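ok so I'm stuck.
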Amino acid sequence: MGGGNAQKSAMARQKNQEKAAGENRGGGGSAGLKARQPDAGVQAEAAAMRDKMNKERAEKEMQKQLKEAAAAKRAAKLAAASGHAAITEDDAATKKKKAAAAALALAAATGGAAPKKEKPMSRNDSTAKSIDAAADNKDGEVEEMTAADADAAEADEKKIREFREVEIPERPPLTEEELVAVRASIAEREEISRAFAEKEAATAAALVEEADVAKARSIISSKGPSWNISGADFERLVLAARSTSAKAGDPKAATQELLDELLGSSPSKALIIRALVPDTKVLRSQALNAAGEVVKAAVASGKCSAAFQKFEAVLDALPADAGASERVATGTLGYVAKLAGSVDLPAVLDLLERCKPIFGGASLDVAAAASLAAGTHLREAIAKGLIAPDAEPTALLTSALVEMANANSASEARSAACGVGAAVGALGAAAIIQHGVVNTINEVMDSKSKTAAHCRESATLAVGMLCRALQFKFEPYAIPLLPQLVKLFADKDKKVADGATYAARAMIEGLSTLSVKPVVGALYEGLGVVGGGGRVRIECLQLAGILATNAPGTMGPCLPECIPLVMECINDSNAKVQTAAEEALPVLCSCVQNAEVASTLKDFILLALRKPDTTIECVEEVLMTTFCNPMDGTSLAFMMPIIIRGIKDANYELVKKATVCASNLCALVKASSDIAPFVPLLMPLLENNKDHSSPVIRDVTAKATAALLEGAGDLVDSAKRHKVLAEHVRSSLSAVHPDLPAAVLDYLGDTSASLLEEKLGGVVRVQFFRNAVPQLAGWITSCLGGVVSVDADGVNAVAAAAVEKFRDELPEESRQMLAKSGDKDFALDMQNIILAFAGRVLLRKADVRFERGHRYGLVGQNGTGKTTLLNRLAAKDINGFPQELRTWYIRHEVLCDDGVDVRSFLKMKAPEGRQEDAIVETVLSEVNFPDEFKSTYVNSLSGGWKMRMSVAISMMHQPELLLLDEPTNHLDREAVDWLTNHLLNLKGVTIAVVSHDYDFIDAVCTDITHYDNGGQLGKPCKFVYYPMTFSEFQRLKPEVAAGLPRVDHAPFPTGATPSEASEVDPSVDGSTSAAASVTSDTQSESATSGLSATFAKVDEMIAAGLILPMNFPDPGKPEGIRTFRKPVMTLKNVSFKYPETERFILQDVEATLTLGSRAVIVGGNGSGKSTFLKLLIGDLESEEGQGEAWKHHALRLSYVAQQSLHHLEEHVTNTPIQYIQARFRQGLDAEVAKLKSIALTDEEKELMDGASAIYAIVGRTSKGNKPWYEYQQRGKMKQETQSLPLSEITLRFPPYVQKLIKNYDQKAQAIESGMAIRPITEAEVLKHLADFGIDQQLAFGKIRQMSGGQRQRLVICAAFWSKPHVIALDEPTNYLDNDSVAALTKALKDFKGAVVTVSENEAFVAEISNEKWVVEDGKVTCVHLRSAKAR
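replied:
not stuck anymore, here's the structure
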C-alpha cells in the first residue's frame, strides 16, 4: 500500500515538473497547474469519500464565512473609531485576485512553482470534480488555483450569499383601527375558548355527577327504607344541592324546606343529618352540597345562631352505632365549619370547648373535622376582631405543643396534634415560625427514646393536621418533612407508621400542582425499599397514584424515574406489592399527554408491561401508529421498558422490530432532555448488537444508534432554566421582603419557576406572556398572605421581571417567533408538532400557525405527509388544537354506502339542528346542484359532482377552519373555476389546501406554507411561511419552486406562471423518497420539453434510484390473435342507466379495443367515463336487450378501480405478500371474478339446480375459428357431456351460462399464462413486488401502513400477476406521486398488451394514448391519434 502511494506521488511530481517546464518555454496555455487524472483504484476511493468531504468542507466554509463576517464588523468598528474607511468585501476580493495574479506572473517569470492555494467550494458540477481530485491526492498535495478559478469561486460565493440573504417579506403593518379589531377578535376568541373549556369541564363533571346520582337512586330504591330515606327525600337533596341531575322543582323551596326541618324540634331527624348515617359516599356528597345551600339560607335569613345550636344538639345525640356516629359527627362538624364568621364570640368559645374533648377521641376523622371547625371559627373571629390572636388561639397552640412533647397515650397524641392544627389554622402561617412549630415537630419525630412512641405519633399527626388547616401555605415546611415521613412508614411502632401515613396522605392530597417535583424524590426512595412487609412500597405507590390523579401535567415528566421502580414492584415477591403496582400503572398512565400513546397504544403498553409475552404485539402496534405529537419523557417512560426488553430478547424478529421502534421513537423526541434518562440504558444494548450475527439487526442497530445520539443532542441540563428562574425570583423577593423565612423564599422560587414553565414552557404566544405577569403575582401574593404584609407593587415588579427573565431564557428561535407574532390573530397556533407515518418522520418541530381568514397552500415534496397532517387536524387530536374551533375537512374521496341518495347523505352528514329538508335544498341550490341529481345515489355521481356535494356539506357545518385535500381531482375546468370562486367568497374562514394544481393554489391562497427539509432528501420537514401568492413565491424562491413535484417533471422557469407546472393529485406519502431529486442537467431543460425530456432519462433515473420502477410482464397474444389491429373487445349499441334514475348515462354507444390500443377515456364531470369503462370490462351490465358486449374468449383482463381501497379494503391488516397470496390462492384473480358479468347471482345459482340445467363448462376447442364449449347437464352422468358452438349456446340457454363460460375462460387463461401453476411462494411474490418498486420493508409491513401511492402501486402490481392482455385503469395517477407517474407511463408505453384508462391528467394522456374515447351527451366518439403500431 505504501509503495503504491510513493509511486503515485512520484508520477504526480514528474507530471507537475513537465507541465511547469512547458510553461517556462511559453507553451503553457494556463496560468496554473491541474491535478492529474485519477487511476481506477483512487477514483473508487474518492467516490467513497465524497460525501464525507463535502460535509466537512461545507462546515469549514460556513465557519470561514462566519469568521470573515465577524472580522469585517470588527474592522468597520476600528475604522470608524480611527476615522478611516473600512475595507469593503469587494475591495478585499479585488486585492485577493490581484495578489493571486501577481504571484502567478512572478512564478512564470522566475520558473518557480506557483503559490498553492486550496480551491474554494462551489455548488456547480466543477465542485464535484475538484473534490474527486482532492480525494485522489493521497500525499497531501494541494491543488493550485487559476485566476479563472478564483473568479468562478468568487461568483459562486456571491450567489450563495445572495441566496442566504433572501428574506421573507413581512406584510405591511396594521393600521391602528385594524389593530383594535384584531385585538378585539383575539379577546373574543379567548373568551370563547374559556367558555368552551368551562363548558367541557362542567359537562364532564355533570356526567360524573349524573352517574353518581343514578347510582345513588338505584341504592336508595333498594336500601332507602331501612335507612329511613325515601326516593322523594333523595330528590329533595339533589334539588337543594343545585345538581344538574335534579328533577324539575324549585331549588330555593327545597333548601328552605331542609332548613325548616333542621330548625324543628328534632334536628337529628332532619334530612341533611339522616343522609349522613348510611355508609354511602354518593349520598353523603349530595347531603354536604345541600347543607352548604342550607347554611347560606340560614345566613341570609339571620338564623345562623339557631342553626348552630341545632348542630350542637345533633353532636349531643349521635347514633349508637359506632360507624354511623362517626359519619354523622364528621359531617355535622363540616356543617358547623360552614357557619364560621356568622356566629358570636360565646358560640365560638363554646365550640372550642366542645371540640377539645373530641380532639382526643377514638376517631381520627372526627378529631380532624373538629380541628378544622374550631380553627376556621377562631380565624374568622380574629379577622372580625372578636378575639385577640394572643389569647385563646395562642394558648391552645402553646399547650398543644407541650402536650405533643409529653404525650403518653393515643388520646393525648391526637389531642395535641388537633390542637396544633386548630391553633395554627386560626393564627395563620406566620405562627409556624413565631412559635417554632416545625422545629418542635422535628425534634419530637427524631426522638430516639423508647417511651416517645406516642409523642412521635402526635408529631406525625400534627403534620397532617397542619396540611389540612393551611393547605399550600404549609408546603414550604411540609415538603422537607416528607422523606422522614416515608421512612416512618416502616417504623416498628405501628402507631407511628399509621401517623406518618396519615400525614403523607394529607400532604399529597392537598398538594399544589406546582410542588409535585420536590416531593416525588422521597416517594421514589420509598419505592426502592425492600422488605418490611412491603408497606413502604405500597404506600408510595398509592401516593404516586394520587399525584397522577390530581396533577397529571406535572407528575408526567417525573415518570421516567418512577416507571422502572414500579416495574420492580410488579416483580416483587410480595403479592400485595404486585397488586398495588398493577393498580398504580393505569393511574400513572393517565399522565400521558401524547394523544397516540394515551389512546391508541395505552392498552397495548399496559398489557406488555404486565405480561412480557405480549411485547412483540405492542412493538408492532407502535410501528403501525401514525404520530402527530412529539414523544415526551412521560410517554417514553412507559414505552422504553418494553423496547429495552425487546432488544434484549433472543427472538431475532423481536430484536429487529424493537430496535427499529427505538430508532423511530428517538427521532420523535420533543427535547434532548426527554431521551436523556434512557441513553445509559439503550446505548450499551445497541453497542452490543453492532456485532449481532444477523446483518439486518446490525443495520437497524447502526441506524438506531445514530438516531439516539441525534435525539440526545448535547444532553444539556434540562433543569437549567428552572434553576435560573427560581434563583431570580428568590433574590428578587428577598429584596422586596427581607424578613421572609428562608423556607418560604425557597418554596416561592421553586413554585414560581414551575408556574412559568407550566404557563409559558409550551406554545409561545404573546398573550400567554401578558397573562403570566398577573398569574404569577397572584400566586406569590396568595402565598405571602398571613406570613408578611404584602407589598403589591413590589410583587408585581418581581412577577414582571421573572416573566421577562423567562423570555430571555427562551431559545433564539422562540424569541424570534414571539417578536414576529405581535398582535396577529391566529385561528390555529400549534408549535413543535411532529408527524411520523409508517416508521418515518415526516415533520419535526414544525409550527402550524394559521392566521384567521387567511388561505394557506401547503406545498412540498411528495411523501412529506401533507394529507396525513390534514387528517390529524380534522381529528383535532394534536396537542394544543383548540377543540372549540369549528373544523371541516373536504377529502379527495367520498365514502358512502350503496343505495344512499344525495339528500339522505347530506342529512346524515349535517350537524345537529340542520337536518331539515329546507336547509338541505337551500344548500344544494347554492352549489348549483341539478334537481335531477338530488335524488341520485351518491356512488353513481361523478367525482366533480361529489366534490360539489362535499362543499355543500361543509357549508352546513359553517366551519371556521376549512381543510381541502386535492379538491380539483376529477374536476373539469368549469368545476375548478366554480370551486375557486366559492372559496374566495368565504369571509373570515381560515383555509388550508393541499393541491398540486398550482393554478388553483395561485388563485385561491393568500399564503404559501412550504414543507422545508433544507434540500436534504428524507430529512424531516419544518414549515416556512411565505405571506404571498404562489406566483410571488415562485419569483422569490425560484430554486424552491423548481424542486416542487410536477406531473411532467419539468422545472419551473423563472418568471413563469403556475399553470406551466400544474399537476394532478399525487399521493400523500410517495413511494420514493427521491421525489424531487433530479440531476442538474434535468433542471436545465426547457419547461416546454415536458414529459419527453424526462422520459429520455427515465431509465437513467431508475438506475440511479431516483425513480422506483414498474416492469410489466409480457402477456403474449391470445389464441387466434396475430396482429395488434385485430379486435379483442367490443361494445355495440350498448345503453345504460342507474336503477334509481330514468336518465340514460350512455345510449347506443360503440367501441372497439385491439391489442395495439392505448385508449384514454375523456369527458366532463358526470359524463359517464367510469361507467363506460365498467361496461367495457364487464363490471356493469347494459340494459337488458340493448346492445352487446363481446370479449375474446382467450383474453386475460385486469382492472384497477379508481379507489385503491376497492381492492384492499378486506386486506389492510395483511402484508402485501399475504394480499397477493390471498387474491390468487385458487389460481384465479379473485377481483376479476367479482365483475358483474362473471359473478353468479343467487337467482342464477338457483337456476343451475333446475332439471336439465347446465351446471358446468368442462372444455373448450376451436372448430373453423369458432369456439365450441363442452358442458354438463343435470340429470346426466358426468361423462355424458355435450359440445356446442358459443353462438348456439347463447341462443339456446339462459344468460347465466354465459357467465359459466366466462369463468371457464378465466381458468383456461390462467393455465395458459402460467398463473394457475405459478407458485405463490413468498420468494416469488417478493420478486414480483420488486418489479413494481415495492421493497422488502414494505412487502413485510402491513398494508395499512402504506401511503396512497404505495397502495396504488400494490394493486397495479397485483393486477399484473396474471400477465393480462388488457389492463383497465380508472384514474391511475390519482394516488401516485409524480415519479411513480413517470414510471407508470414508461411501463405502459413498453407494455405489449392493450391499455384502456380513464384520466384527467393531460400530460399522462398525451404521452401514452394513441386514441381518445370522448364521452359526451351519452355518446362515445373515438378519435385516433396515431397508428396502433406507434405505441
